[in-house]
Amino acid sequence: MLSLTVVVPCYNERANVAPMVAALEQALGELAWEVVFVDDDSPDGTAQAARDLAQSDPRVRCIRRIGRRGLSSAVIEGALSSSADYVAVIDGDLQHDETRLPVMLDAVAGGADLAIGSRHVEGGDNAGLSSSSRQRLSDAGIRLAQIVTGTRVSDPMSGFFLLRRALFERLASRLTGQGFKILLDLILASPTPLNIVEIPYRFRPRAAGESKLDALVLLQFAGLLIDKALRGAVPLRFLSFALVGAFGVLVNLVVLQAARAAGMPFEGAQTLGTIIAMIANFQLNNQLTYRTQRLKKAKAWQGLALFLVVCSLGAIANIGIARALYAENGSGLAAGAAGAAVGVVWNYAVSATLVWRVR
Asked: What is the pTM of this model?
């Protein structure tokens, strides 16, 4: 009977596919196992590399995803494709130590709910982080998760863990499926505390490809924590869109004041500030809110033009609602807030369906 499915979410990891399979074969020995590469349509041919191996090795499978991106959702799809008793998740960059998988499997088979590969317990090592900036980002994410959730897990940002498939399936419907960090999502999704065992491992230097850890990943991780704190009452993407919109208001005011100081008439300064704010909002939403559907090259310019039109119509709706409410009750603050709320909802709904729609 198949015992273990190793899920490998990947993007542009072609050079690491064959070494990963060889490393798993060496580490898992006679254990019944399979590896599922979940590839987000990598332009470097990662999926083809996995399928080439699958021609001669039935333990290798590949799920090629088109029109959707994101590590968390890739892990969910890979795990739910398994029929094994246990599911492990490991990055495709060979930085995780696959030789620790048997130890993690023994821990879960022995009664633990979840075994986590940790760099921050005795015997672990974080030397594989390539720069001090990546080290700081990782440490910041860990501290943030521990403060907000109160979890005692030393490495909640780890992408290296193992659990029973049955447990994963019970928690799957509670997962957000967004962003690049799924472990904490799993822990917080459980309605009862999990029995967690942390297994030390040495985080290796990357052999090939490029790191996906950056400040935007940390922001998405913070968004996950906010979503969990609100118990999913407000869509995470809407929160991100609204925060970007608030930043746009700040940009608008700064440009307005600068243009007025330079002698520009108010109407012209306000128009300039509004346009620059909308451009800034588009860039931030493209990089953060819709990171997994990011528009590039010519599509980015087309998306910007459409976003400007959408936001212009939203501004008209904002002003119209505010004027109507002000005429009715005379409260400028309440009328302005209501108009702004209508504008944000309009911009979010139409942008999601037109600008960043899944094609």
From this structure: 0.69
